[in-house]
Amino acid sequence: MAYFNKVLIANRGEIAIRAMRACRELGIETVAIYSDPDKNALHVKYADEAFHVGEARPSHSYLNKERICEIAHKSGAEAVHPGYGFLAENSSFAKLCEDEGIVFIGPRSDVIETMGSKIGSKRLMRDAGVPVLEGTEGGVSTVDEAREVASRIGYPVITKASAGGGGIGMQIVHSEDELEAAIEKAIRIAGSAFGDATVFIEKYLEKPRHIEVQVLADSKGNAIHLFERECSIQRRYQKLVEEAPSPIMTEDLRDAITESALTVAKTVGYTNAGTVEFLFAEGQHYFMEMNTRLQVEHTITEMVTGVDIVKQQLAIAAGEALALDQEDIGIRGHAIECRVNAEDPMNDFNADPGKIVRYRSPGGPGVRVDSGVHMGYTIPAQYDSMVSKLCTHGSDRMEAIQRMRRAIYEYVIIGVKTTLPLHYAIMNNRSYIKGDTHTHFIEQEGILSKLERYMVDEESRMRTLAESFNQGREVAAIAAAVDVYVRSNQPK
């Protein structure tokens, strides 16, 4: 059934292609938008139609709300899928779509606005009986107020930007001596990044796990969950590796955390796909925020449940009731996602945009690669550095890990530095294999200090696989590229 005749995908890269794939399977035509650097991007070629949206700067292209709605009308698209990032959680864009008679494939604009405030949503969830961390009831207006709160709940504490995300504005404070400088810095960063300098304080957990629950809710009042994902392996509050289900999950904890997630969704009258994020420590989960959009890591939930989340988004946005009941959903095996970014792990994860000289995706049983790149593609400097999402599925967690090791071994990306060696190191880490992870795993396990031997493995792997492409001068050229790649990846 085609819920819409034509959908505009207001995004780029792999997530644009992911949404287009669901549409194509349903017989829905797709419209791509592209900026100047993206005129030859894969998502542009994959779509049925493509329209130039603006110059390189996001504010003039992928964040240009009025231009995107203009293209939707011009192309005859009835709906807009925002993907993630850019305008996906922008309540004013959702409201503009509503006003323009364009279906926004996501929750209502007022729900996005409500859940976009960490202070407001936290207060709302506390009143609804969902566990939250101790902290301020509202924004901190003075250092004295912050000092009183920190003294009451106990150090360490963390500052957060109410309107923010991605770790921007977060400052960990271990003592009263650090508080004033931390508050001032958090306010300055929040105001600059989000145009809203409101910050709040809450109790800081030293080694928490980051667990999130995928929910689906329709406009008829039905809501279900698709179980949990663990996203504890991060760097600078950005996720690196995710898995489903969580390796520490018990039936009692799962019942408690999924019930909390559904309470969150029902409290705000949520519709479409969303993710409720929690911190977990010492047997207790705490509401952190709700992402009112499709998550990067939705892939692994799809792999263990068999539910196509993007198709569900399209059906819900078209006014359909959920075709699934909670008892229809189960967990089959285990799945892992590694975010492969064009970044240099040995140089503070600095982005490494540039041309991909050679590219070969892994395959075989239980392997899924969502990407928006190809051989010869130039990763632009203006946008996110993600190359692909590499996912594996196994009958159990160990098989998923083993398949990820194999998939990383098979993956060839020459021309830019990537996080693949880092992921290989994680997959071979004893603590990770035991499921003993937390949000400071990378630092406390010293993962980066152990990368040198994986760089040697990378050289051998690249040379071996390069030989399988062709013979003669091309192999010599690839070998030369490998030499440059390896030398540039040596620890500083």
Helix content: 25-40%
Which structural class do you get from the secondary structure elements? alpha+beta
Number of helical elements: 17
Give the domain tally. 3
Would you identify the CATH architecture of the largest domain? 2-Layer Sandwich
Beta content: 15-25%
Terminal residue distance: 55 Å
Mean pLDDT: 90
Radius of gyration: 23 Å
Main sheet properties: 8 strands, antiparallel
Structure commentary:
This protein is α+β, with helices and mostly antiparallel strands. The protein has 3 domains: 100 residues, Rossmann fold; 70 residues, 2-Layer Sandwich (Dna Ligase, domain 1), CATH 3.30.1490.20; 279 residues, ATP-grasp fold, B domain (D-amino Acid Aminotransferase, Chain A, domain 1, 2-Layer Sandwich), CATH 3.30.470.20. Helix content is 37%, strand content 24%. The chain has 17 helices and 22 strands. Strands 13-12-9-10-11-14-21-19 form an 8-stranded antiparallel β-sheet, with helices on both faces. A 5-stranded parallel β-sheet has the order 3-2-1-4-5. A 3-stranded antiparallel β-sheet has the order 7-6-8, with helices on one face. Strand 2, helix 2 and strand 3 form a beta-alpha-beta unit. The protein is globular, with a radius of gyration of 23 Å. It starts with 5 loop residues before the first strand and ends with a helix. 50% of the residues are buried. The C terminus is likely disordered.
Please render the helix and strand layout as text.
Layout: E1 6-9, H1 13-25, E2 29-35, H2 42-46, E3 49-54, H3 65-75, E4 79-81, H4 91-99, E5 103-104, H5 109-116, H6 118-127, H7 143-153, E6 157-161, E7 171-173, H8 176-194, E8 199-203, E9 209-217, E10 223-235, E11 238-244, H9 251-267, E12 272-281, E13 284-291, H10 298-305, H11 309-317, E14 334-341, E15 343-344, E16 350-351, E17 354-355, E18 358-360, E19 367-371, E20 378-379, E21 386-394, H12 397-410, E22 412-414, H13 420-427, H14 430-434, H15 441-444, H16 452-466, H17 473-488
Parallel strand pairs: 1-2, 1-4, 2-3, 4-5
Antiparallel strand pairs: 6-7, 6-8, 9-10, 9-12, 10-11, 11-14, 12-13, 14-21, 15-16, 17-20, 18-22, 19-21
Helix pairs in contact: 4-5, 7-8, 12-13, 16-17
